[in-house]
Design goal:
single chain, 134 residues, mainly alpha, 2 helices, 78% helix, 0% strand
Amino acid sequence: MAKILIINKHNSQNYHERASRKVQDDKASFVGLIASKKGSVKIGLASMGFLVAFFVVFSCAYYLFQVNDLAVKGYDIRELENKISELEKENKQMQIREMELRSMYVIEKSAQDFNLVSPVNVTYLEVNNTVAIR
């Protein structure tokens, strides 16, 4: 609250009258402002409620979408890991099979199965000229 210094009685009465009118005018304008904003506050609250509800629904939907997407990706990763494991097992089996087929025992047995003749007299050809090898 403001303190008022009264210098002379005549001026102070006019001042008090003007101040009280101003206060009444301010009160009336404030009451009018509140009354005029009452309708807009309801519209604002309804709009704000709608926005909050929309945001909550959107957030829930987005959360569900993300959780579902994460679950699907986890399932895909698990399938790919299983496939990698199977391919690694298959690769090891093929390497073992390759070693078995390259063994001397299997080569000699195959030579007998195909009736191949082992060489008796081997002669080598010697070339004195320089030969370019590609």
